[in-house]
Design brief:
Elements lengths: L1 H28 L9 E7 L13 E2 L10 E3 L7 E4 L2 E6 L9 E3 L1 E3 L5 E2 L2 E8 L6 E9 L13 E6 L7 E7 L11 E6 L8 E7 L3 E6 L2 E7 L14 E9 L1 H4 L11 E13 L1
Parallel strand pairs: 3-6
Antiparallel strand pairs: 1-18, 2-7, 4-5, 5-18, 7-17, 8-17, 9-14, 9-18, 10-11, 10-17, 11-12, 12-13, 14-15, 15-16
Length: 276
Amino acid sequence: MKYLFFISALFLTLVAFSESNEIERNDRDNPNGNQQIKWELIWEDNFDTDGLPNESIWDYEEGYVRNNEAQYYTRNRLENARVENGNLVVEARNDNWDGKEITSASLITKGKKHILFGKIEVRAKLPTGKGAWPAIWMLGTSFKNGTRWPDCGEIDIMENVGFDPDKIHGNIHTKSYNHVIGTNKGNSIIVEKPYADFHVYTIEWFETRIDFFVDGEKYFSFANENTGKTTWPFDDPHYLIINLAIGGGWGGQQGIDDSIFPQKYYIDYVKVYKQK
C-alpha cells in the first residue's frame, strides 16, 4: 500500500514537472505564453455625436504636408472631416476651396492621445479610385520635436492605393528600415473590395514585436532585433493618424482620375487597448 502510494505520488510529481517545463518552453517560444492575450480598453471613439470630430482626441494636419500630394488638408471644415450617422467621414473633394483645387483632411491624436504598446483597432470602409491613398498609421511623438523621419519611427496599420484597390499594406519605417533606402519591412494582404464593406485593421504592439491583422488574420509581424533605436524606435510613444491623401509619390503613380470625386473614407470606430 505504501509502495503504491509512493509510485502514485512519483507519477503525479513527474506529470507536474513535465507540465511546468512545457509552460516554460512555451513562454520562451512565445513572449505571451500559451494563453490567449487579454486586453483592457483604455480609450475609444465611436463617433456618436454629429459635427466636428471630438477635439479632446483629434487635432488636424493642415496644408500641403508631404509626399508631393495633391490635396490641401483643412482644419475644422465639415466638408472634409465630420461625424455623421455614427461614422467619422473624411472626404476628399475637387472643390477649389480658397484656391486649393483638391481638399481633404488628416486627423491626428498628437498632443492629445499618445500610445505606447497595446492593441490599436480601427473599423473602416475605404475610398477608392486612381489617386486615392487612405491610411491609418502612427508616428513617434518625437517627430518635429528634434527627431526627424524615419528616425522617429512609423507604423503603417493600413495603407491602400486606389490603382490597386484590393490590396492592403502594413509596414514599418525606421532609420535602418525604410522605403527611401529600399529596406522597409512590411507585407500586404488581399481584401476583396475594401471600399464596399467595413473591415477591421489592427496592430498588436509589444516590446518584442508588432503584429498586423485584417479582420483578425495576421499577415505581417516585425520583431525587435534588440539592436537599438535605428531598427526599433518603438519603445517610445506614438500618435495616431487617419488621413485621405490624393496623388503623391505612391498614390499618384498612375495619375489622378478627376471623375472619382468626391471620395468618402468612413471610420466606424477607433479602439485602443493595453495588455492586462
